[in-house]
Amino acid sequence: MNLFRNVVFIAAIAGLVAGVILACMQAYATVPLILKAEVYEQAGGGHKHDHAAAPAAADTTAMSTAAPAGNAMSTAAPAPAEVTAPAKDEGWAPADGFERFAFSVLANIVTGIGFALILVAVSEFAGGIGNWRQGVFWGLAGFAVFTLAPGLGLPPELPAMPAADLLPRQIWWWATVAATAAGLGLIAFRKSLPLAILAVALIVAPHIVGAPQPDSFETAIPEGLHHQFVVAVTVTNLVFWLVLGAVVGVVRGRFTGTATSLRDSFA
Amino acid sequence: MNTASVSLGASVSSQSRFMQLALAAFLGIFVMGFVGFSHIDAVHNAAHDYRHSMAFPCH
């Protein structure tokens, strides 16, 4: 399991570095927007209900959700009953402030290592990331696969924004990631026109099927706030992926001692 | 480490190589799937800001 150990080691370092950087960027760029949106969420008493029915319950809900430390997030259950359900029904949640920030950092690092494991393993099949520059290109691919493609159908959403049921969206998200990755792989590593056409079809297909959309897009969130959030999420993820790829290239280069050309590994 | 080989663990057989890389990839998918996509409330709440910031389907 020598290879496995090396992959995990490289992924751990790259995921740690990129995850910490992403957490810092989020603290300045995205989390303040989420907190702003939660003010609307609490004022509206949730985000997955009929807004026309909200005003009556809004006052009491705002009172009951603003006081406790919980995030006042609702679960996937579309039941209108959640409008009056206090946040404590949603299980444990980190306290606002440092604890909440600490768990975000932890999530960033853990999933950063997860993304890095996928990136390193997949790139090893193609010959490995030889240096930081190749890593940047692999990072661009990761950004396209995990952020751009799913983000077209399911744009980054703020709390209190309407959305379709959770599970269909998650399935569409994973299917889009898989199809986009397969398409990019075919374009990059197969010198064949028919396969390139198939690749384009794979990349386009999820968007023809279409992501699950909510019945109504009506939301209390100002459009400007949401647009700001979409830009912040996209740019922070771009930097994350570029850093992740570059660090993998640097660390792996130390392992192997030599930098191989990505072109040599093309099939 | 500074031998002629330029790939990690080049000495292992191709079948073992495939299995180890596949294992690493699945471990990565499992980790990010658990943190980013688990329906367990506590996990969702702990990673809430992260999920929104990554544009993962949330709520």
TrEMBL record, chain A:
Pfam families according to UniProt: CbtA
Question: Which spans are transmembrane here?
Answer: 7-29, 101-123, 135-151, 171-188, 193-209, 229-251
The alphabetical list of record keywords is: Membrane, Transmembrane, Transmembrane helix
Where on the tree of life does the source sit, at the highest rank?
Bacteria
* NCBIfam families xref list: CbtA
Q: What is this protein called?
A: CbtA family protein
From TrEMBL, chain B:
Under InterPro entries, the record lists: CbtB_put
Transmembrane stretches, by residue range? 21-40
Pfam families reported for this sequence = CbtB
Q: Which branch of life, at top level?
A: Bacteria
Sorted alphabetically, which keywords does the UniProt record give? Answer: Membrane, Transmembrane, Transmembrane helix
Q: What is this protein called?
A: Cobalt transporter subunit CbtB
Q: Which organism is it from?
A: Mesorhizobium robiniae
